[in-house]
Amino acid sequence: MKIIILGAGQVGGTLAEHLASEANDITVVDTDGERLRDLGDRLDIRTVQGRGSFPTVLRQAGADDADMLVAVTNSDETNMVACQVAYTLFHTPTKIARVRESAYLTRAGLFDNEAIPVDVLISPEQVVTNYIKRLIEYPGALQVIDFAEGKAQLVAIKAYYGGPLVGQQLRQIRQHMPNVDTRVAAIFRRDRPIAPKGDTVIEADDEVFFIAAKGDIRAVMGELRRLEDSYKRIVIAGGGHIGERLAEAIESRYQVKIIEMNPARCRQLSDTLDSTVVLQGSASDRDLLMEENVDDTDLFLALTNDDEANIMSSLLAKRLGARKVMTIINNPAYVDLVQGGNIDIAISPQLATIGSLLTHVRRGDIVSAHSLRRGAAEAIEVIAHGDAKSSKVVGRRVEDIALPPGTTIGAVIRNDEVLIAHDDTEIRSGDQVILFLVDKKYIRDVERLFQVGLTFF
Question: Where is the RCK C-terminal domain (predicted)?
Answer without folding.
Answer: 142-226, 367-452
